[in-house]
Amino acid sequence: MRAIAEFAMRSRWHAIGTSMLAAILPLMGWLTTVIVALVSLRLGTSAGAIVLVWALLPVGVAMYFVGDPSPMIAMVGTFLMAVLLRQTLSWELVLIAAVCLAAIGAFIFEIGAAAILERFAAFYVEILAQIDSSLVMAPEQAQTISLGFFALGQAFAMVVMLIVARWCQSALYNPDGFGKEFRALRLSPVVSSCLVAAMLVCYLFNEALGRWLPLLTVPLVFAAIGLTHWVVKTKEMSGNWLAGFYISLALLFQLIYPFLASVALMDSWFNIRNRIQTIQKD
Q1: pLDDT by residue (tens digit) across 251-261?
Q2: What are the domain boundaries of the chain?
Q3: How big is the chain by its Cα radius of gyration, in Å?
Q4: Distance of CA 252 to CAs 205, 260, 262, Å?
């Protein structure tokens, strides 16, 4: 990945060519978004916008024939988040922006890809029926839930691709800069409290707003992952601990995900890092 990033950053045309080629190749669209974000982080909004416009050409053609706007939504959203990160250096603001942009993208997807949403909802209903025949869900309800999952997936995809771009920037120009930045990620008590309040509203008005409940947990989960990296680094633990953590997250997602959100809230309100450092000093 570093070699590809180094090649893309040789010049504007290297970045444009690499991003367009990646957009054409199967399963490589994420690399296009990473390059756009990397150029935006390193060279600024104008340079990133030029690469974005060229990269959108093959992505737009694919969207025209397939009818799926999600790659374009993710690319534009990640570009905006990269611009925000460059200007503010705040991952907290970036994570909040990811929630907002994913929600906007979900509305666009609902309007522009209604047929795809209907097929995904039908697939979701079929899976539920196979698990338990008593689980009957109306198509409208299934589409609502599917849209919430789409927003959650978009938010995670945009943040992960921005993380990869930031890592590439750090590897090329500022070794370990991203590591320090990510390990310091912690939500302020005000932001975490607002997220909890918003989740409570979504829970109370479940029929109208319930779809957004999973999306609101995204900043909390990434903050908890940053805390995990900080603990491993501070305790000088082996990298195998991080590997085990990510494997467990992938295999036990439904169990670990709520736990991570809870840990992030505790860190935000009680500053777990300071408490660990205080214990170490004592």
Answers
A1: 888 889 999 99
A2: 1-184, 185-282
A3: 20
A4: 29, 12, 16
CATH of span 1-184: 1.10.1760
Condensed to tens digits (0 to 9), the pLDDT of residues 214-264 reads 999 999 999 999 999 999 998 888 889 999 999 998 888 888 999 999 999
Cα 268 from Cα 215, distance rounded (Å) = 18
Q: How many degrees, rounded to 5, is the angle at CA 230 between CA 228 and CA 234?
A: 125
Asked if residue 220 lies in contact with residue 155, where contact means CB atoms within 8 angstroms, the answer is no
Location of structure tokens 């957004």: 212
d(CA 231, CA 236): 8
- The structure tokens listed for 115 are 């047929």
Contact status, residue 7 vs residue 14, Cβ threshold 8 Å:
yes
- Look at the block and give the residue holding tokens 């024939």: 65
Is the pTM above the cut of 0.85? yes
